Every structure is written in structure tokens, then in C-alpha cells.
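Budget justification aside, the reviewers requested a transparent look at the raw inputs and outputs of the sequence design task funded under Objective 1. We therefore reproduce one unedited record. The lines immediately below are the C-alpha cells for a 329-residue chain.
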């Protein structure tokens, strides 16, 4: 029967464990033998002491022993009394120490309870402070947004008011220019030279008046539309805005326009399709004519100015509304 290497290793381990157990047992036996030897030595010493005492007792008489005992009895009683006093003092000291320690424990426990952190209360207080801080921050943000919106609405209302004032100023200027032009036409008719014929007939004058009325009506309609449909950003600011009144009536009537109703009726429908560039050209032409009023007027210069005005108006209207102007020979 062949023995494997693993079996040899297992046997070696088993033998080593047995050797360790036997060594431990031997050590225990050695210790026990030493203790037995010590006991034997002490017994021998005790026996020797007893022998010595017996020898001494044989040498002395009983009377000496009695006297020695009587001498030692008071000392023993004093020692016993002293021991009793010491025991009583020790008990008193222990009671006092226990009382002091109990008071100390109560005091320290009270201090600990007073200085103890209440985590629930601290946690709730911390969360309350965090909520208050978050609420304050939200209020500050909302206040900043409201202020920004108020500034935007105020700026929008200011721009709207400026635009309305500008439109009103333009309308009043147009009315003034219209009156000045009509005065120039009247002067040119009254004080013009007899042999010189005007380059523009009555129909061109009617077309000019229709053009001015159409400009005024278009501007009024545009402003009414802008006022009726305001933007959402300026709706709140317009509630506190002062209402602006239109000083120019919609149905402006100028002298010389009542005679030709057909030309007047064509004005609004024709001006509904005019562009902003045409209005700008007409305003420039009118401004040039009004500025010429500052120069000294003579019959010849007045007639020339009226002729130039009528020609400029006819050219401007011809570029925008064909079939409404005619040229006289």
C-alpha cells in the first residue's frame, strides 16, 4: 500500500500538534511541581518555627507566660479600641465621600442637561431660518423684476407719449402750412399780373387740398389705431398716463375746397394708398413754400412762388396718384 505525500504531511502535522500538547502538559506539570515544592518548604518552615516555640516554652515556666499574657492584654485592648475608632472614622469618611460624590453627580448632570444641544429644535430652527432666507431672496428677486418691468413700462409710455406729441406737432404744422399756402394762393390770385397766366388750374388746387386732408385723416387714423391696440408691456403704464386730446379736427375744412365736391371726394380714397415717402416729399415742398414767405413779396415774386408751389404739388401728386393732376398749358 503506497503512502502519498499528503498523508505524510498530515501525519507530520498531527505529530507536531501532539508534541505541542505534550510540551504544554509538561510545562503545567513543572509549574505544579514547583508549587508543591513551595508548599513543602513552607510546611517545613512552619514546623521549624513550632519546634522553636516549643523549646522556648519548655524552658520558661507557666507563671512567666501568664505575666507576659497579662502585660500584653492591655495593649491588645488599646489596639482593639483604636481599631474600632478607626473603623468608625473610616465609615464616617466613606459616608461623607458618598454624599459629596452624589452632590457632584447631581451638579454635573444638571450642567450637562443645561448645556446639552437639542438637535430637533436646532434642526427646526435651522430650517426655519433657511426658509425665511429663501423667502426673503425670492421677495428681493420679485421686487427687482417688478422694478425692471415698471422701468420698461415707464420707458414705453414715455416713448409712446413722445410719438403722439410728435404726430400732433406734425399735424399742427401741416395745418399751418396749408393755411399759409392758401393765403399765398389768394394773394397770387388778387395781386398777380394781368397778362400772366397761372401754370396751375383750379383742379390742381383742389387736388392739393385733397392731399392735405388725406394726410391729416391718415395720420389721425394711424394714431387712433396705435392708441386702441397698445402693447402688453405698456398696458399698465398707460392707465396712469394723462389722456392726450387731438387739437386738430378730423374734418378739416380749408377755404376754397367747398366749391369742388368731386375733387374732395377723391381725396380720402386716393390717400389710402399713399406711402410714407410721398408724405415726406409733400411736407418738404410745403416747408419750402412756407419758408419763402419770409422774403419780401412783390406781385411778380408772389405769382412765381404760387406757380412753383402748384407745380411742385402737381409733380408730387403725379408720382403717387396718377389721373388726379392735370397740367395747364
Amino acid at each position: 500500500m503506497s503512502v502519498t505525500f499528503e498523508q505524510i504531511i498530515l501525519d507530520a502535522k498531527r505529530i507536531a500538534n501532539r508534541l505541542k500538547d505534550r510540551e504544554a502538559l509538561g510545562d503545567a506539570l513543572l509549574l505544579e511541581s514547583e508549587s508543591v515544592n513551595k508548599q513543602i518548604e513552607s510546611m517545613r518552615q512552619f514546623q521549624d518555627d513550632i519546634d522553636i516555640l516549643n523549646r522556648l516554652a519548655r524552658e520558661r515556666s507557666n507563671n512567666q507566660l501568664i505575666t507576659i499574657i497579662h502585660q500584653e492584654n492591655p495593649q491588645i485592648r488599646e489596639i482593639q479600641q483604636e481599631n474600632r475608632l478607626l473603623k468608625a472614622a473610616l465609615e464616617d469618611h466613606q459616608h461623607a465621600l458618598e454624599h459629596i460624590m452624589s452632590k457632584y453627580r447631581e451638579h454635573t448632570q444638571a450642567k450637562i442637561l443645561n448645556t446639552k444641544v437639542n438637535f430637533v429644535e436646532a434642526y427646526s430652527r435651522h430650517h426655519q431660518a433657511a426658509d425665511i432666507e429663501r423667502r426673503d431672496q425670492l421677495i428681493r428677486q420679485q421686487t427687482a423684476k417688478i422694478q425692471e418691468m415698471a422701468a420698461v413700462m415707464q420707458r414705453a409710455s414715455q416713448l409712446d407719449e413722445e410719438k403722439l406729441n410728435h404726430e400732433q406737432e406734425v399735424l399742427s404744422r401741416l395745418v399751418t402750412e396749408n393755411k399759409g399756402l392758401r393765403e399765398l394762393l389768394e394773394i397770387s390770385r388778387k395781386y398777380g399780373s394781368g397778362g400772366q397766366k397761372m401754370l396751375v388750374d383750379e383742379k390742381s388746387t383742389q387736388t392739393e387740398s385733397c392731399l392735405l386732408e388725406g394726410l391729416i385723416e391718415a395720420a389721425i387714423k394711424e394714431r387712433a389705431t396705435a392708441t386702441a391696440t397698445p402693447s402688453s408691456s405698456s398696458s399698465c403704464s398707460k392707465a396712469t398716463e394723462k389722456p392726450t386730446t387731438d387739437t386738430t379736427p378730423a374734418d378739416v375744412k380749408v377755404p376754397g375746397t367747398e366749391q369742388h365736391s368731386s375733387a374732395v371726394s377723391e381725396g380720402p380714397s386716393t390717400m389710402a394708398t399713399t406711402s410714407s415717402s410721398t408724405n415726406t416729399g409733400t411736407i418738404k415742398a410745403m416747408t419750402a413754400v412756407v419758408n419763402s414767405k419770409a422774403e419780401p413779396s412783390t406781385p411778380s415774386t408772389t405769382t412765381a412762388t404760387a406757380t412753383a408751389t402748384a407745380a411742385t404739388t402737381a409733380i408730387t401728386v403725379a408720382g403717387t396718384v396718377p389721373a388726379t393732376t392735370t397740367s395747364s398749358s
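Residues 124-190 form one domain. The chain has seven helices and no strands. Computational costs for records of this kind are itemized in the attached budget.
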